[in-house]
Amino acid sequence: MTPLPPQPLSPLDGRYRAAVAPLADYLSEAGLNRARVEVEVEWLIALTDRSLFGAAPLDEEAKNRLRALYREFGHAEIEWLAEKEAVTRHDVKAVEYLVRDRLSTLGLDAIAELTHFACTSEDINSTSYALTVQRAVERVWLPKLRQVVAALSDLAVAHRDAAMLSRTHGQPATPSTMGKELAVFAWRLERVALQIEGGDYLAKFSGATGTWSAHLSAEPDIDWPALSRSFIEGLGLGFNILTTQIESHDWQVELYDRVRHADGILHNLATDVWAYISIGYFSQIPVAGATGSSTMPHKINPIRFENAEANLEISGGLFATLSQTLVTSRLQRDLTDSTTQRNIGVAFGHSLLALDNLLRGLGEISLAEDALRADLDANWEVLAEAIQTVVRGEIAAGRSQITDPYALLKDLTRGRRVGGAELAEFVRGLDIGEDAKARLLALTPATYTGLASELVGEL
């Protein structure tokens, strides 16, 4: 059999590339290497700014030329690093060699020995991962989540008064409104989004085992922890002063657990909207030229929500693995985190793909208000809750001699349909005050929605 030309193994780099491409700027191998170059370059500048080891501070032109190494990082650097790593068998060392090589090109050989000065690979890696994950979350993933929340909020406001039969345990239950039910998801997602926005992105910069031993050996009169903190915080990150060879990854565990939480809420949204489509509460807006089924021309399948559901399960599983693995490192360092962290982009990719599907799906549904009204009108028995609660109030107020209102309504309604006329006749025969009786007789399933519409305003 003739072998195929080179193909992406992951659908994120093939079929779904367009939806997740923005993440590749940060969470790909090239994105990681660009960040590593950035950290190496900025550390060089930090050392020369302080005239350490006789190095003169660089002027702004030299700094800009040096910073161009990561600002203009591209195909040439990617290929150079691939060739060098094939020899070094060490990715961070290859980055160090790249910076040294470019220093020579820029005429900055005099500071070459300050490249990667007193650093262990994890100083560069922890800082680079913190930068790339922070930028991917803040510039790509969170904005897409915010779009979904905004779409949900818009739908919630639009349908705040659309009364619908609730389905607790899948059974007819006290009515709500579609707007309030969608607002619940927006509310939940907003809460988790705020937690993610307030999270830490930490890095360490303290040498081979987190003790600054080599730094002090080279220059004992420098406050290296203060310099390291200033450097890391200058990059917009938090500084972790107490570590082993690696930054402990706890901030990553916290982040991935929160994103997994968001994934779970989104999964709940996908399955609920799918169910609403299934029972006819939402109709799907046909997309010109699209095929729902290869053999049944009438069908419009809810594929956006099904795709989202599956991708959220993959993403959640990967984030759970990341959290479980990254929280532990044997003694002062083991390498299990290296391979694990290379899948951060895959986990975010499946989550971003799900968000894209949900956003599209929410824009392709229309509320079938006739179906909502028909369902309400077929389930007058849901007013049993209101009736027995009113009766209890009347008993407490001394206006009724009924002994067990719950059992009374249970005998009337449990397991059977009760029409409006039958329920009205039942209410008229109740031993309760006339005002209470009038309130109940005026009630319908469509008006028994409490504060559902007002609650949407909480968004």
TrEMBL record:
Residues 329-449 form the Adenylosuccinate lyase PurB C-terminal domain. Pfam families: ASL_C, Lyase_1. Pathway: Purine metabolism; AMP biosynthesis via de novo pathway; AMP from IMP: step 2/2; Purine metabolism; IMP biosynthesis via de novo pathway; 5-amino-1-(5-phospho-D-ribosyl)imidazole-4-carboxamide from 5-amino-1-(5-phospho-D-ribosyl)imidazole-4-carboxylate: step 2/2. InterPro entries: Fumarase/histidase_N, Fumarate_lyase_CS, Fumarate_lyase_fam, Fumarate_lyase_N, L-Aspartase-like, PurB_bact, PurB_C. Keywords: Lyase, Purine biosynthesis. Catalyzes two reactions in de novo purine nucleotide biosynthesis. Catalyzes the breakdown of 5-aminoimidazole- (N-succinylocarboxamide) ribotide (SAICAR or 2-[5-amino-1-(5-phospho-beta-D-ribosyl)imidazole-4-carboxamido]succinate) to 5-aminoimidazole-4-carboxamide ribotide (AICAR or 5-amino-1-(5-phospho-beta-D-ribosyl)imidazole-4-carboxamide) and fumarate, and of adenylosuccinate (ADS or N(6)-(1,2-dicarboxyethyl)-AMP) to adenosine monophosphate (AMP) and fumarate. This is Adenylosuccinate lyase. The lineage of its organism: Bacteria, Bacillati, Actinomycetota, Actinomycetes, Micrococcales.
